[in-house]
From TrEMBL:
<dbReference type="Pfam" id="PF07638">
    <property type="entry name" value="Sigma70_ECF"/>
</dbReference>
<dbReference type="InterPro" id="IPR053812">
    <property type="entry name" value="HTH_Sigma70_ECF-like"/>
</dbReference>
<feature type="domain" description="RNA polymerase sigma-70 ECF-like HTH">
    <location>
        <begin position="4"/>
        <end position="60"/>
    </location>
</feature>
<dbReference type="GO" id="GO:0006352">
    <property type="term" value="P:DNA-templated transcription initiation"/>
</dbReference>
<dbReference type="InterPro" id="IPR013325">
    <property type="entry name" value="RNA_pol_sigma_r2"/>
</dbReference>
<dbReference type="GO" id="GO:0003700">
    <property type="term" value="F:DNA-binding transcription factor activity"/>
</dbReference>
<protein>
    <submittedName>
        <fullName>Sigma-70</fullName>
    </submittedName>
</protein>
């Protein structure tokens, strides 16, 4: 997925669109999981870390002032 597509999904999710959230989740799951897996001792812990990360970031997403996909990834 390129930066423009990711930015469109972020904007879609920020409006509360459930399909936007679903697509954004699918787009970020693997990279977030890879980072979590390197940091955690078990796969279960990595999956839980991804779950918590996604829940927290998606809950804050509507109020976030992100203007580009790199900002979202860093955030």
């Amino acid at each position: 997925m390129n930066a423009q597509e990711l930015s469109a999904l972020i904007k879609q999710a920020q409006t509360g669109d459930t399909e936007g959230y679903a697509q954004l989740y699918r787009a970020v799951y693997r990279p977030v999981y890879k980072i979590a897996r390197m940091a955690m001792k078990s796969e279960d812990a990595a999956v839980e870390a991804v779950r918590l990360t996604v829940l927290d970031s998606f809950a804050a997403l509507p109020a976030a002032r992100l203007t580009s996909s790199p900002q979202f990834i860093e955030w």
